[in-house]
């Protein structure tokens, strides 16, 4: 079922093209990719050929710089496969965006063409064992020795860091101490295959099985001084400034989940009969599905109003508020929607051969990655002048 769409004709064409690709090239394989814990490189490059990785990228490198378009693509992919959806979201939001926003011309020329064509994936390594929501607690260190950064530390839960298309990990590291005594954190580009960068085996996750997530060890990794991304000491500020786009894009992924759950559950409720009537003719089933319809509509409005604010260059504080509201509300809707959908499917909803079971496992992490629900509430409360201590 389609949401009434007030985006442009170009956006509607894009939605049709990506939805068609996802229906024919993604949906038939999603369960197998989930079981294999792997997304084939061919589907990533096929999405590259469709232009998906370029949607959010800079225009001078053939991109559209259009967050609304990126959200449409992620939503449509996410309706069929959340793992592929997060692969795209992380590739653009965490891989391409920092280089596009803060890279030197040389860094951009080296990395963006392959990343924006889907020929390569880049990851962002911020999280550590003791630094997740509290990213300022980063322990990874980088020292400049004779024109070379020497990096030591570990990173946790890094998406797209160990896929056969992974070519680069952008990492945050302490590069000194600021005048106020707090850690100076900077960002460095570390190409995969650099000696000392160890990509540990992938995690055994509850969901997003096919998405590529690894712990990383940086043991005396040496990269040239020119691999500093953006300004020294601005690593966290830079990361936070790209995170709003990422939060809107995660909300788009969650919207795909809400729509899929509504559509699958409504279809099942129309077909399944018990006690001589369709289950969808009982209020106990019909009303929660009406609620899913409300969630799909409100989620759509939250995602695309936030993306529109960002695309028309609204003030950063307005975008940050809209992004936090969309991320918080739509990801919580997604978790609720999977619970309703599996219940409507009864025992079949617990079986892996039905996609609602996969959506149920995949949804939880939406409330955690790129800022937990609590972190979104912190952002919003601070915007209200609260939580000042
Ligand atoms: C599948 C997956 C993929 C990921 N991909 C990446 C990636 O590519 N790159 C990357 O850098 N990171 C990645 N992450 C990490 C993710 O961003 C963090 O897990 C997330 O930010 C939470 O950090 P944490 O796990 O350390 O939890 P913690 O920060 O330890 O939080 C634990 C709980 O406490 C709550 N909490 C923490 N502080 C407060 C507070 N002040 N007030 C109220 N509640 C609070 C949190 O909301 C949470 O509920 C990924 C995580 C997962 C699971």
UniProtKB/TrEMBL annotation:
The keyword Oxidoreductase applies. Transmembrane segments: none annotated. Signal peptide: none annotated. Gene3D superfamilies: Acyl-CoA dehydrogenase/oxidase, N-terminal domain, Butyryl-CoA Dehydrogenase, subunit A, domain 2, Butyryl-CoA Dehydrogenase, subunit A, domain 3. One of its GO terms (molecular function) is acyl-CoA dehydrogenase activity. Residues 123-221 form the Acyl-CoA oxidase/dehydrogenase middle domain. Residues 8-118 form the Acyl-CoA dehydrogenase/oxidase N-terminal domain. Keywords: FAD, Flavoprotein, Oxidoreductase. Pfam families: Acyl-CoA_dh_1, Acyl-CoA_dh_M, Acyl-CoA_dh_N. InterPro entries: Acyl-CoA_DH_CS (IPR006089), Acyl-CoA_Oxase/DH_mid-dom (IPR006091), Acyl-CoA_Oxase/DH_mid-dom_sf (IPR046373), AcylCo_DH-like_C (IPR036250), AcylCo_DH/oxidase_C (IPR009075), AcylCoA_DH/ox_N (IPR013786), AcylCoA_DH/ox_N_sf (IPR037069), AcylCoA_DH/oxidase_NM_dom_sf (IPR009100). This is Butyryl-CoA dehydrogenase. Its cofactor is FAD. Residues 233-384 form the Acyl-CoA dehydrogenase/oxidase C-terminal domain. SUPFAM superfamilies: Acyl-CoA dehydrogenase C-terminal domain-like (SSF47203), Acyl-CoA dehydrogenase NM domain-like (SSF56645). Belongs to the acyl-CoA dehydrogenase family. It comes from the Bacteria.
